[in-house]
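Predict the 3D structure for this chain.
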Amino acid sequence: AIKIPALLGILATHSLDKPVPGLKNLMAETYPRLQRGRMAWLLMQEISQGNREPHVLQAFRELEGDLGYGMLLSRYAPDMNHVTAAQYQAAMRGAIPQVA
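Done. Predicted structure below.
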């Protein structure tokens, strides 16, 4: 987190004492969600191919909140079974909105 003027802190977090996360913080928080999203994406593919076993459906339900991160990762990793560190890095950068 970085120190910034109080007004931006209020606008960003609705708090006077809560820190505004910096770019490195956002990227670090994104990595585990990309990993869970990848698993959700792979499970979704399995379900779409007809596998409706209860343990597969339950695993998907537990991870589906991060499915969007998996979909984002799939833009950078054509083979979701073998995602490289560089592809994760690209997806982490892609998860942060561009502000101009």
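The mean pLDDT is 87.
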